[in-house]
C-alpha cells in the first residue's frame, strides 16, 4: 500500500480546489492507496503538517491547487527524494503547463501521479533563494521576479476582483501611475549588469502570471537559470511591451537581455533608481533584496 500525503487549497481555481481535492482523495483511495489529508486553514499550517508527515514516513506528497500549492510542496520535498504529485486546479498553473501535466482534470492528474509512482518520478531542477548573508533559504520551481511584475503581483494579491488573469491587468493599471525604473546590480556567473531597470526575473520555467512567456527558452531540467533583465522603460513603453510578453515577443527588444547562469546575486542600487519591489516566486512573497538565487540540478522528483 502506497502512503500518500494530500494537501488541498480550497480556494484554488475560483473555489474549484475543494471539489478537485475531494475527487483526488476518492480516486487515490479507490486505487488502494492510503491517503492522509494534510490540508489546513492556512498555508503555513499545511506546510507544517506536510513536513511532519514526511518525516514520519510518506511515499509521496500530492498537492491540489495552483502554483502557490506547488510552491508549498516544493518547500517540503525538495532535496529529500520524496516525490511530488501535482493536481493543477488553479487559475495560472504555469508549472503544470511546463511539465506537460493535465490542468483542470482531476482524473487525468491522478493517472499522471500513478504513472510516476509505478515508473519512477522525473527529476527536475529546483531553485534556492535567500539572503546572501544567511544560510537559510526557500525553494521555488518557477520564476522569481523583483521588478515591475513583482509590484503587479503584490497589488493583484490585495485585490478581490476580478478573478483570474483580469486581476493582473487591473493591477498593472494601478501600479503604472507610480512606476519609475528601479536601480539594480545583478551578478551572474560570468558578468555583472548594473542599470536602472524595469524588470529582473530569474526563470526555471518559461511562464509566469498564468501564461506570460517571460523566458521562452527556459528548461526545467538543464541545470541553468534564464535571467531576464529589462532596462529603463518609460510608462508608455511598459504599456506597449506588456501584451507581447504572452507570446515572448519582448525578447527581441533591444532593452531586454536573457543570460543563462547557475547562480545570481540581485542587489538594489539606489544611485540608479528606487529600491526594487519585494521579490515573488511561484506567485508567493519571498522578501526584499538583496537575494542570492542558485539552481540545484535534479533536486526535485515529480510524479508525471
Characterization of the model:
By secondary structure, the chain is an alpha+beta fold. It contains nine helices and 18 strands. It has helices at 12-15, 17-30, 43-57, 67-77, 94-99, 106-119, 148-158, 166-176, 235-241; strands spanning 3-8, 34-37, 60-65, 84-88, 122-130, 138-140, 143-145, 182-187, 192-197, 199-203, 207-208, 212-213, 225-230, 256-261, 263-268, 279-281, 284-287, 291-303. The strands form three sheets. Strands 1, 2, 3, 4, 5, 6, 8, 9, 15 and 18 form a ten-stranded mixed β-sheet that branches. The protein has a six-stranded antiparallel β-sheet with strand order 14-13-10-7-16-17, with helices on one face. It is globular, with a radius of gyration of 19 Å. The mean pLDDT is 94.
